[in-house]
Amino acid sequence: MNGRWLGVLLAALSVSGCFRTVVRSGHPPGPTPPSHDQRWHSGFAAGLIEDSGPHWIDEVCPGGWAEVRTETDPLHSFLNLATWFIYSPQAVTVVCAEKGAPSAPPRDGYGVPPVTASGGGYPPPAPPADF
């Protein structure tokens, strides 16, 4: 019976995998603050309940940000499985924009450009019928 549970655990670990999510602002990357390089971000209930709070990027990178990466590596996956997804950690890295880059995008995002008579804007025109 112990060998069977070990096989189930190894199978669960093999399919848990690792993943990374990267969000880029479009600004050229600059330095990564040491305090936000692979910083652990803790959550509970499979990540539904946040414990370590948000990362205020405008305080970390006052000159703008270039990239935010969240990563779940094998250690994080193991901790998820070992606690039956009660504790769900991830690593977060914030990369600031290069000095002199434009300020960060607005917090609420950009507005959708209006559709013009010439067909420009959003949504893009449909492809030709013979395409």
Structural summary, described in words:
With 131 residues, the chain is of the alpha+beta class. It has a domain at 19-96. It is 21% helix and 21% strand. The protein has a 4-stranded antiparallel sheet with strand order 1-5-6-2. Strands 3-4 form a two-stranded antiparallel ribbon. The longest helix is centred in the N-terminal third of the chain and has 15 residues, at 2-16. It starts with a helix and ends in a 35-residue tail after the last strand.
Strand percentage lies at 15-25%
**Shape, please?**
extended
Structural class: alpha+beta
Order of strands in the sheet with most strands: 1-5-6-2
The main pleated sheet reads as:
4 strands, antiparallel
* Discrete helix count: 3
Distance between the termini: 59 Å
Q: Helicity, in percent? A: 10-25%
Mean pLDDT: 79
> Could you give the count of β-strands?
6
Q: SSE order, as H and E? A: HEEEEHEHE
Radius of gyration: 21 Å
Features:
alpha+beta; two-stranded antiparallel sheet; extended; about 130 residues
Quick take:
This protein is an alpha+beta fold and 131 residues long. It is built from 3 helices and 6 strands, in the order αββββαβαβ. The strands form 2 sheets. Strands 1-5-6-2 form a 4-stranded antiparallel β-sheet.
Secondary structure elements and their pairing?
Layout: H1 2-16, E1 19-24, E2 39-41, E3 43-44, E4 49-50, H2 57-60, E5 65-72, H3 74-82, E6 90-96
Antiparallel strand pairs: 1-5, 2-6, 3-4, 5-6
